[in-house]
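Summary of Year 1 activities. Much of the first year was spent building the evaluation harness for sequence design. The harness presents a backbone, in tokenized form, and records the residue chosen at every position. We chose the following record to illustrate the format because it has been used consistently in internal testing since the harness was completed.
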């Protein structure tokens, strides 16, 4: 196995991007760059960007293109991403972001864009039972039998429901995905860069499908 890869993972909220990207980043020894995680970290730190972003995120909206493009441009310029590669999760989310990314990656192009495909009915179910560690970001599935407070097995942090996983925000985010982000699937297909991988089934199987796909493209 040769480390290094430059990948974009698209997919609906709840498709399992976060979980799979963590595994892919270990497998290829490249940073997992999640714009959602970056914004949540900024919100926790209370930076100006973080505070602006938090309001938008909590209600399921999208942070402005210009802010997001600046953030990602700066991150991809860092030594780890620049030399080894990266897995981009949550960006691009609009056509304007994709066009900016084309410019940013002109010299070191993306290997493949993967659409991690899970039908809307299934992701709605997954999101409503999703719980997340506030400190390390580990995902859990609520069954209704948890003790409260719920403590993270990995780091001892608080496991809670994200504000944007409440039903109204979930529907808003999925509508935004269909209108703003789904067009990117066509955008990358036209450029011959797209692979569609089913995200349905056990995480190990999905992971296998993803690495097989990356190997075929890299
Ligand atoms: P999800 O994909 O489940 O919505 P993320 O963690 O990827 O979760 O993102 C959380 C929130 O962060 C988004 O709903 C949005 O408000 C904001 N966000 C993340 N990435 C972007 C982006 N590329 N453009 C605009 N907003 C973004
Ligand atoms: Zn934790």
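For this record, the design step produced the sequence shown next.
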């Amino acid at each position: 196995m040769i480390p290094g890869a430059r990948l974009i993972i698209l997919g609906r909220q709840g498709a399992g991007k976060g979980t799979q990207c963590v595994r892919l980043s270990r497998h290829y020894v490249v940073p997992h760059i999640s714009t959602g995680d970056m914004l949540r970290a900024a919100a926790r730190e209370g930076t100006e960007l973080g505070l602006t972003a938090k309001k938008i995120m909590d209600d399921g909206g999208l942070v402005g293109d210009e802010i997001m493009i600046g953030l990602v441009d700066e991150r991809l310029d860092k030594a780890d991403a620049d030399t080894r590669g990266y897995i981009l999760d949550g960006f691009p989310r609009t056509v304007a972001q994709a066009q900016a990314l084309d410019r940013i990656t002109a010299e070191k192009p993306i290997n493949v864009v993967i659409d991690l495909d899970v039908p809307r009915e299934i992701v709605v179910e997954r999101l409503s039972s999703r719980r997340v560690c506030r400190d390390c970001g580990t995902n859990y599935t609520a069954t209704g039998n948890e003790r409260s407070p719920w403590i993270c097995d990995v780091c001892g942090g608080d496991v809670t429901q994200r504000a944007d996983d409440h039903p109204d925000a979930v529907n808003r985010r999925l509508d935004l995905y269909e209108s703003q982000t789904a067009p990117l699937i066509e955008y990358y297909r036209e450029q011959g860069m797209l692979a569609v991988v089913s995200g349905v089934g056990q995480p190990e199987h999905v992971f296998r499908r993803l690495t097989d796909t990356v190997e075929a493209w890299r």
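Residues 167-181 form the longest helix (15 residues). Quantitative recovery figures across the full test set are reported in Table 2.
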